[in-house]
Amino acid sequence: SKRLAELVYAGIPTPVRGMVWVNLAGSKELVPETTISVLQSQASYPDLLNQPTQHEKYIVKDVPRTYPGHEYFSGAAGQETLYNVIKAYANYHGEVGYCQGAPFIVGILLLHMPEEEAFSLFCKIMRGYGLRGLFKPSMADLPLRLFQLDGLIHSLFPALHSHFTDIDVRTASFASAMFLSMFGTVLPLDLVCRVMDIFLLEGIVALFKSALAILADNHDRLLIASFEEAMKLMSFRSLMEIYSSADS
Predict the structure, then answer these.
(1) Could you point out which of 3, 5, 140, 148 has its C-alpha 20 to 30 Å from the C-alpha of 94?
(2) Distance between alpha carbon 240 and the CA centroid of its chain, in Å?
(3) Among 85, 94, 214, which Cα is nearest to 160's?
(4) pLDDT-derived band of residue 158, with 50, 70 and 90 as boundaries?
(5) What pLDDT digit, counting tens, does each position of 11-25 carry?
């Protein structure tokens, strides 16, 4: 409803954010599971954790790289819960398995809810919000989403799009990581939570809105940047500095 959208855009209070996220996802109409890999994997969460996974070494390698500056995820307990949810999902949906961006999404959920609840919500996000095609090994949907974003940049920021073409900055070079991590690799944590707020309300369109907002905020600087300067400006370190200072 319009009132719900107004409340979400105004900002979900941190103490109730997890509960609101679950309710927003719960209102999403889900397509029944039909894939063989899922139908064969109706195991409980503990059972999924006890199963081996072919993605083990990649998950173990990436978990410490997820929000490394955050107190919870720099410790053993946070890394264990993150590992558990990622491993359980890899076993739950074999066709998707594991993708490097997934821990950043799961990590945000774990900061607002218990482990099993985070797993359940991550399953709903992948199933009901059109993210599976981004996270399957083929990443079949990623070129489409990047093409759509490129078209929006061309329409909304034609001068910037032309400049990007001139300096050979391709949309994929900065937006792929944004989409695959729900902006967890480029924005401060509080803004990543805000992206998730809007995403659970509006779906995939929230990722486009967030990417376009970053481009709008940095439009003038990007318009005169070289290739190296543009890529640096769109990097994690630069965007963290920009948006952290904006909050202070």
Answers:
(1) 148
(2) 16
(3) 214
(4) very high
(5) 899 999 999 999 999
Q: Which has the minimum average pLDDT: 25-34, 89-98, 100-109?
A: 25-34
Encoded tokens for 210: 């967030």
- Our CA angle for 28, 142, 70, nearest 5°, is 75
Tell me, rounded to whole angstroms, the distance of Cα 158 from its chain centroid: 27
Residue type, 172: A
Residue 171 has pLDDT above 70, yes or no: yes
More confident residue, 133 or 216: 216
Separation between Cα atoms, residue 185 and residue 143, nearest integer Å:
19
222, with CB counted inside 10 A (0-12, 13-18, 19+), is: buried
pTM, two decimal places: 0.90
